[in-house]
Specification:
Blueprint: H1 5-72, H2 80-98, H3 109-143, H4 150-192, H5 197-202
Helix pairs in contact: 1-2, 1-4, 2-3, 3-4
Length: 205
């Protein structure tokens, strides 16, 4: 059978079109794969950055709380030095709060929840310490007043005693939470590929 030249041209054109289509498919597939790889790399980079940031914040917070505990055992338990350390702890919590949305870059939902819960469990009693200390100072100032009545004095003294216990309970609760927080720092080390415990160890007695 004789094949006309036009048939050869058709087959040649078909092969060319097929090659173009195949090339386009391969190029598109390659671009998609490259995009997926780039996305995964970026996702991992964001997770490592978040782990590094929160690990630094938590380890610094732990170091500050340990120093505060040590200072608390020397002289006035809630004197200027102790309160200054606790204010620094509040500043670290403020840094955490301003960057909290970066928690979502950590893929482990359980880790995210435990980090946030632990910070709240430190923040609440920490703020309570400042509130009770301020109220105690106001009460003590009132006790020094010349016009305070015996009944009022008795009530103020009872309230100061109650506040003293509340403040101590808050510090103890905060310390317990801080101990649990160290485990979170170690988990973040695995994600960040960085060792934070050196900063924590530096604050140990």
């Amino acid at each position: 059978m004789v094949v006309e030249n036009g048939a050869y041209d058709f087959l040649s054109n078909f092969s060319t079109v097929g090659a173009i289509v195949l090339g386009s498919i391969l190029a598109t597939a390659g671009a998609l794969i490259a995009t997926q790889i780039e996305w995964r790399v970026e996702k991992r980079r964001r997770e490592q950055h978040a782990a590094l940031f929160f690990g630094e914040v938590l380890s610094t917070l732990l170091a500050i709380l340990r120093i505060a505990k040590r200072v608390k055992g020397i002289g006035d338990p809630y004197g200027p030095v102790t309160m200054r350390m606790l204010r620094q702890a509040l500043q670290e919590i403020g840094i955490y709060d301003r960057n909290r949305e970066n928690l979502y870059n950590l893929h482990d939902g359980s880790l995210r929840a435990r980090i946030h819960t632990s910070v709240l469990r430190v923040s609440s009693p920490l703020n309570g310490i400042f509130d009770t200390t301020e109220e105690m100072r106001a009460g003590q100032a009132r006790l020094r007043a010349a016009d305070v009545t015996p009944k009022e004095r008795s009530e103020i003294e009872a309230r100061i005693k109650q506040l003293t216990q509340m403040r101590e309970d808050g510090f103890d609760f905060m310390e317990e939470t801080a101990q649990e927080m160290e485990a979170l720092v170690k988990e973040l080390e695995q994600v960040a590929g960085y060792r934070f415990v050196d900063a924590i160890a530096a604050a140990r007695p």
